[in-house]
Structure formats: structure tokens, C-alpha cells
């Protein structure tokens, strides 16, 4: 029985590295697995279901539908990327655009392969109620379709269990062998002692394994952080089809007239009905569509425009759906960015003066196309987006911050007094937000 000690170690090591490899690959794999299901659930499922109409029409076999309807070739994929372009080029697409007053989001970054993967996934979804007829079954199937699931957690739990079992069984066999060999009269080691001594004897392997494990966890976590909980292009419906282009664009109303706390506080604020009434008491709408929308303001304000206009006193709150939101543990302050940092609204929200549809979370690719915007790569509203900009942007650029050459003066003094510090911060000619602490966790997290 002399052989086993060394052999066991080697088997132990092999198992260990094999497990680590699997753990690592499984975490790496999730980065690249961009399949139709994931795309559909993250980008489309807020509005579409395979078999039931929702905010958008059902998408089952939509490729067939467009072909049969006489749509131009390539027009469907163009629709998904930018429905406005498709509607302008193809009469069939223009007809589809009339389906609902709500407009579809734009997905300019989806490739033909992505789009086909989405449709393949949708077409593979079984018809609800195919087995059992009736509205009930239909409802149930519809309800489960939009549910989001995340299998990653399970992969990790299973891997962890496998890992522990392997460690224990390797340890267990060894222990029995060791106890068999133990000299007469010596207390057999307890399980805990055995594990401790095994770890001590293999401290290099264990050390490396723990390190690899920790790195794998951090990598996965960071990938998660860049995208967690964010739906780019998110565009909820609203109680009134409020057009930003008509107000902020054509009529040139300042953003601050309605979002009046944007320079003073953390949040920008959404105007109350009274603010709308300042103008809409007079502006009652020219056509049926406008009158229908504006009458909703009157209903909320308890106003009837007939006979010069009267308030009934019965008001009703308009409940606008929040478009941009960050999780509760994140602190974001508008005045800090708009007033102190001198950053324009369009940097983060796109050009709202041209926004015909309802507001939405504008994808970073579109933000980059807006003239004068800082070019970023991480998805809008993710942590990666915030910190990337803090790394790119100099603080002295804002109109408030460099008043009277305040920063220029600091630069001059720093250069005189501490050249090495000056070089550290200013080799790129600017003090970035990150250099002043804009990467500190506590600045953004409660
Ligand atoms: C914000 C809601 C919304 C999102 C998100 C959305 N759509 Fe749409 N989609 C619509 C609406 C609404 C229509 C109907 C057209 C209209 O009225 O403008 C539509 C229409 C369509 C059509 C034409 C359907 C038909 O019956 O001809 C296709 C195809 C489509 N969407 C695909 C997608 C795909 C793929 C995604 C995800 C990448 C997606 N949509 C995401 C709202 C949305
Ligand atoms: C006449 C009033 C008015 C003006 C002017 C106006 N807005 Fe708005 N804005 C609103 C209302 C009302 C909402 C909420 C309804 C909605 O989301 O459609 C809103 C919503 C928004 C949202 C989405 C808020 C969310 O829920 O995340 C953004 C972003 C926004 N406005 C930016 C701007 C910018 C930038 C300007 C100037 C270019 C501007 N607005 C001018 C009234 C106005
Ligand atoms: C500073 C004046 C002003 C304020 C404040 C204002 N509006 Fe308007 N609104 C206008 C003007 C001007 C028009 C254009 C009317 C037209 O084209 O006939 C308009 C048009 C509209 C329309 C019809 C747009 C269309 O073309 O379909 C809606 C809906 C509307 N406003 C909603 C609102 C809401 C909701 C608020 C409050 C959050 C609001 N407005 C605040 C001036 C204002
Ligand atoms: C640096 C990026 C950035 C800039 C610049 C910016 N916003 Fe925002 N805005 C955000 C973020 C992030 C949110 C979501 C905040 C939250 O959920 O706490 C938001 C939310 C909003 C909302 C929804 C209501 C609220 O306060 O949460 C409105 C309205 C709005 N912004 C308007 C504006 C206007 C108007 C400007 C320009 C004067 C502007 N924003 C400039 C990033 C920005
Ligand atoms: C477009 C670039 C940009 C984006 C995107 C951006 N920021 Fe900033 N942020 C700035 C600038 C510039 C300043 C510095 C303002 C100043 O003091 O001159 C700043 C400052 C801050 C500060 C204060 C830092 C300090 O040292 O006091 C916080 C907190 C902050 N940002 C949070 C956020 C969060 C959270 C997000 C994402 C939701 C975000 N920012 C997105 C540009 C940006
Ligand atoms: C410039 C602002 C900023 C800084 C600095 C920052 N974060 Fe974040 N963080 C965010 C935002 C915004 C989100 C939400 C992103 C989302 O929902 O995808 C977030 C999300 C997170 C989450 C995910 C929580 C969840 O929603 O599940 C964790 C964990 C986290 N941050 C940890 C950190 C740590 C640790 C640091 C310091 C090394 C840090 N953050 C620094 C802005 C910041």
C-alpha cells in the first residue's frame, strides 16, 4: 500500500485543474453565447411575444408573413434595425407601421445573423393551446413566454457542488488509506485535521486554484455589471403621446421649462399638468388626433374648454412611466453633470428636439452619432458607461468649473510645486473625472 500517496496527489491535482478548466470555460462561454433566445428576451420581449399581440404584434413566422404580403427583399431586417427607414422605402413596411400608435424601438446594431437568430427562436416556439384548446391555455402560455430566466446561477451551483464532492472524496479515500497505515496506538486524524493537512501539503496547488476561482468570479461579475438590468432602447408607453419634437423642437421650449429641477437637484423632474395648462388652456389642438391627446390633459386638470373654459376641481393624476431608471443603490445627480460638468442633455438622452416618438433609452451607438457627443462604447446607463465617460472626460471643461481660469491657476501652481504629480495627472492635458475620484465606488453607490 505504499504507492497511493503520490498517485492520489496527482489524481487530486488533475481533478482540480479539470474542474477549474470547466468552471472557467463555462464562465467564458456565457460571454460569447449570443443566441436568438437571449437577444429576443433582452431586446424584443418587452413588446413582442411569439403567439400573442402585445405592445407589438406577435412575431411567429413573421418572415413568411412579410414575404406573402409582398414586402421588398431585405426590408424586414431593415425594419428591425430602423423601422422608419423601412417604412420610407417599402409600402408594405409603411402599412405595418400603422399597426399601433406606439412606435417600435430602433436596433441599428443588430446584424442579419442576429435578426435571423431571433426569428428562428420565435418560430421554434410551440403554438400555445395546441395540445389543449381554449382561451385559458392560451393565457397561461402567453404569461410564461415573457418570463425572463437566467440559467447561469444554476451552472455555478452545480459546478460548486461537483467541486466540493471531488475535494471531499479525494480527501476521504486518502484518509482511509492513511488511517490504515497509521502506526498502532496513534489517534486517527479527524476529517477537519485531514483536510487542513492536505491543504497545507498542497498549498501551492490550492493557492493557484483559489486564485483562479476568484478571478473567474470577478470576471463573471464584471461582465454582469456592464449589462445588468439594462434594456437599451427601452421605451414604455405613456398616458399621453407627448411629442418632444413639437415642444422642444418646433416651438423651441427650453428643456428646463418643464424639467425645471435639472440644474438644481439630483432629478430632472417631470412637469405637472398645471405646467401643460399654461399653454394648453389656449392650444386646444387642430385635428382629431391632437384634440384627442390634449383632451387627456383637460381630463387630468379637471378642465372643460367649452364656453371660455372652466375648472371643475376634479383632478386626476397623469401617471407617466419612467423611462430611464437606475437601481436604488446607484446615486446619479443631474445638477452635478448638467450645471457643474457642463454636459448637454443630448450626450445622455440623444437629441430630444428631434424626438418624434416617445422618449426611450437611446443606445450608445446612436448617442455617438449626435454631433458633439463624447464617443463611448459601453451600453447606455450601465456602470461601464458611467465609468468610461468619467475616464474620458476632463473636469475643467465645464463652464462652471473653469470660471475665471480657476483650474488654469491650479495647474500653474501644481507645475511649480510638484512636477511629478502634475505629470501624473496632466500628461494627457486634462484632469479627468476619474482622477478626481469619479471611479470611487462610494461616489456612485449608497
Ligand atoms: C417598444 C416596443 C417594441 C420593441 C422593444 C420591439 N418592437 Fe417590434 N414592433 C413594435 C410595434 C408597436 C410594432 C407594430 C408596428 C407599429 O405600429 O409601428 C412592431 C412591429 C414589428 C414587426 C412587424 C410585425 C408584423 O406583424 O409585420 C417585426 C418583425 C418586429 N416588430 C420585430 C421586432 C424585433 C425583432 C424586436 C427586437 C429586436 C422588436 N421588434 C422590438 C414594438 C416593439
Ligand atoms: C413641454 C414640456 C417639456 C419640454 C419642453 C421637454 N420635456 Fe422632456 N418630458 C416631458 C414630459 C411630460 C415627459 C414625460 C412623458 C414621457 O416620458 O413621454 C418628459 C420626458 C422626458 C425624458 C424621459 C424621462 C424618463 O422617464 O426617463 C427625457 C430624457 C426628457 N424628457 C428630456 C428632455 C429634454 C432633453 C428636453 C429639451 C430638449 C425636454 N425633455 C423638453 C415634458 C417636456
Ligand atoms: C410653452 C407652451 C406649451 C406647454 C407648456 C405644453 N405644450 Fe403641448 N403644445 C404646445 C404647442 C404650441 C403645440 C402645437 C399645437 C399645434 O401644432 O397645433 C402643442 C401640442 C401638443 C400636443 C399635440 C401634438 C401633436 O402634434 O400631436 C400634445 C399631445 C401636447 N402638446 C401635450 C402637452 C403636455 C402633456 C404638456 C405638459 C407636460 C404640454 N403639452 C405642455 C405648447 C405647449
Ligand atoms: C450624464 C448623463 C445625463 C445628462 C447629461 C442628462 N441626463 Fe437626464 N438622466 C440621466 C440618467 C442616468 C437618468 C436616470 C436617473 C435615475 O434613474 O435616477 C436620467 C433621467 C432623466 C429624466 C427622468 C426623471 C428623473 O429625473 O429621473 C429626465 C426628465 C431627464 N433625465 C432629463 C434631462 C434633461 C432635461 C437634461 C439636460 C438639461 C438631462 N436629463 C441631462 C442621465 C443624464
Ligand atoms: C458623458 C459623460 C458622463 C457620463 C455618461 C456620466 N458622468 Fe458622472 N460625471 C461626468 C463629469 C464631467 C463629472 C464631473 C463634474 C465636475 O465636477 O466638473 C461627473 C461627476 C460625477 C460624480 C461626482 C464625482 C465626484 O468626484 O464628486 C458622480 C457621483 C457621477 N458623476 C455619477 C455618475 C453616474 C452614476 C453615471 C452613470 C449613470 C454617470 N456619472 C455618467 C461625466 C459623466
Ligand atoms: C461612476 C459611477 C459608478 C462607480 C464609480 C461605480 N459604480 Fe457600480 N454601478 C453603477 C451603476 C450605474 C450601476 C447599475 C448598472 C446596471 O444596472 O447595469 C452599478 C452596478 C453595480 C453593481 C451591480 C448591482 C446590481 O445591480 O446587481 C455592483 C455590485 C457594483 N456596481 C459595484 C461597484 C464597485 C465594487 C465599485 C468600485 C470599484 C463601483 N460599483 C463603482 C455606477 C458606478
Summarize the amount of helix as a percent range: 40-55%
* Order of helix and strand elements from N to C terminus: HHHHHHHHHHHHHHHEEHHHHHHH
Spans of at least 5 consecutive residues with low confidence: 1-12, 27-33, 130-151
Query: Given the C-alpha coordinates, what overall shape results?
Result: extended
Structure write-up:
The structure is a single chain. By secondary structure, the protein is an all-alpha fold. The chain has helices at 4-32, 36-44, 62-68, 75-81, 83-89, 91-96, 112-123, 135-145, 152-181, 191-201, 203-227, 244-250, 255-258, 273-280, 288-301, 334-340, 345-349, 364-369, 383-392, 406-417, 419-426, 441-444, and strands spanning 303-304, 310-311. Among the domains are: 4-32 and 151-227; 46-145, Cytochrome Bc1 Complex, Chain D, domain 2 (Orthogonal Bundle), CATH 1.10.760; 360-444, no CATH class. A hairpin with a 5-residue loop joins β1 (303-304) and β2. α1 runs antiparallel to α9 (152-181), α1 (4-32) runs parallel beside α11 and α4 runs antiparallel to α5 (83-89). The chain is extended. The two termini are 60 Å apart. Residues 238, 242, 244, 247-248, 253, 255, 257-259, 270-271, 320, 322-324, 345, 349, 352-353, 358-359 line the site of one heme C (HEC).
Descriptive tags:
single chain, about 0% strand, Cytochrome Bc1 Complex, Chain D, domain 2, binds heme C, two-stranded antiparallel sheet, mainly alpha, disordered N terminus, 2 strands, about 450 residues
Record the SSE blueprint:
Elements: H1 4-32, H2 36-44, H3 62-68, H4 75-81, H5 83-89, H6 91-96, H7 112-123, H8 135-145, H9 152-181, H10 191-201, H11 203-227, H12 244-250, H13 255-258, H14 273-280, H15 288-301, E1 303-304, E2 310-311, H16 334-340, H17 345-349, H18 364-369, H19 383-392, H20 406-417, H21 419-426, H22 441-444
Antiparallel strand pairs: 1-2
Helix pairs in contact: 1-9, 1-11, 2-7, 4-5, 9-10, 14-15, 20-21
Bound molecules: heme C (6 copies).
One heme C binds next to helix 19 and helix 22.
Amino acid at each position: 500500500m505504499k504507492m497511493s500517496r503520490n498517485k492520489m496527489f496527482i489524481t487530486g491535482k488533475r481533478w482540480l485543474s479539470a474542474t477549474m478548466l470547466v468552471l472557467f470555460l463555462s464562465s467564458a462561454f456565457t460571454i460569447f453565447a449570443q443566441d436568438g433566445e437571449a437577444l429576443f428576451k433582452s431586446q424584443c420581449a418587452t413588446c413582442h411575444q411569439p403567439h400573442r399581440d402585445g405592445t407589438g404584434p406577435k412575431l411567429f413566422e413573421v418572415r413568411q408573413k412579410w414575404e406573402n404580403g409582398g414586402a421588398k427583399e431585405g426590408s424586414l431586417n431593415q425594419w428591425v434595425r430602423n423601422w422608419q427607414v423601412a417604412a420610407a422605402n417599402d409600402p408594405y413596411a409603411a402599412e405595418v407601421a400603422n399597426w399601433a400608435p406606439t412606435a417600435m424601438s430602433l436596433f441599428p446594431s443588430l446584424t442579419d445573423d442576429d435578426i435571423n437568430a431571433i426569428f428562428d427562436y420565435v418560430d421554434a416556439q410551440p403554438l400555445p393551446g395546441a395540445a389543449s384548446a381554449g382561451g385559458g391555455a392560451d393565457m397561461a402560455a402567453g404569461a410564461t413566454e415573457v418570463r425572463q430566466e437566467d440559467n447561469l446561477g444554476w451552472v455555478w451551483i452545480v459546478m460548486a457542488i461537483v467541486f466540493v464532492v471531488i475535494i471531499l472524496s479525494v480527501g476521504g479515500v486518502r484518509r482511509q488509506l492513511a488511517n490504515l497505515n497509521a502506526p498502532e496506538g496513534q489517534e486517527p486524524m479527524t476529517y477537519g485535521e485531514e483536510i487542513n493537512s492536505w491543504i497545507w501539503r498542497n498549498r501551492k496547488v490550492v493557492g493557484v486554484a483559489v486564485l483562479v476561482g476568484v478571478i473567474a468570479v470577478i470576471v463573471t461579475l464584471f461582465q454582469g455589471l456592464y449589462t445588468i438590468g439594462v434594456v437599451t432602447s427601452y421605451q414604455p408607453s405613456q398616458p399621453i403621446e407627448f411629442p418632444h419634437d413639437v415642444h422642444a423642437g418646433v416651438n423651441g421650449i427650453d428643456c428646463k421649462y418643464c424639467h425645471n429641477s435639472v440644474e438644481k437637484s439630483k432629478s430632472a423632474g417631470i412637469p405637472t399638468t398645471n405646467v401643460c395648462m399654461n399653454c394648453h388652456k389656449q392650444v386646444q389642438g387642430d385635428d382629431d388626433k391632437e384634440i384627442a391627446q390634449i383632451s387627456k390633459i383637460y381630463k387630468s386638470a379637471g378642465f372643460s374648454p367649452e364656453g371660455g373654459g372652466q375648472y371643475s376641481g376634479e383632478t386626476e393624476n397623469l401617471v407617466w412611466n419612467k423611462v430611464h431608471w437606475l437601481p436604488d443603490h446607484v446615486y446619479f445627480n443631474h445638477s452635478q453633470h448638467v450645471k457643474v460638468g457642463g454636459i448637454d442633455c443630448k450626450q445622455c438622452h440623444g437629441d430630444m428636439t428631434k424626438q418624434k416618438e416617445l422618449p426611450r433609452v437611446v443606445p450608445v451607438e446612436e448617442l455617438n452619432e449626435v454631433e458633439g457627443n463624447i464617443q463611448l462604447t459601453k451600453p447606455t446607463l450601465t456602470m461601464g458607461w458611467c465609468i468610461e465617460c468619467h475616464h474620458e472626460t476632463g473636469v475643467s471643461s465645464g463652464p462652471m468649473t473653469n470660471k475665471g481660469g480657476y483650474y488654469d491657476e491650479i495647474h500653474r501652481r501644481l507645475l511649480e510645486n510638484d512636477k511629478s504629480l502634475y505629470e501624473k495627472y496632466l500628461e494627457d492635458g486634462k484632469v479627468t473625472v476619474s482622477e478626481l475620484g469619479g471611479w470611487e465606488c462610494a461616489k456612485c453607490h449608497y
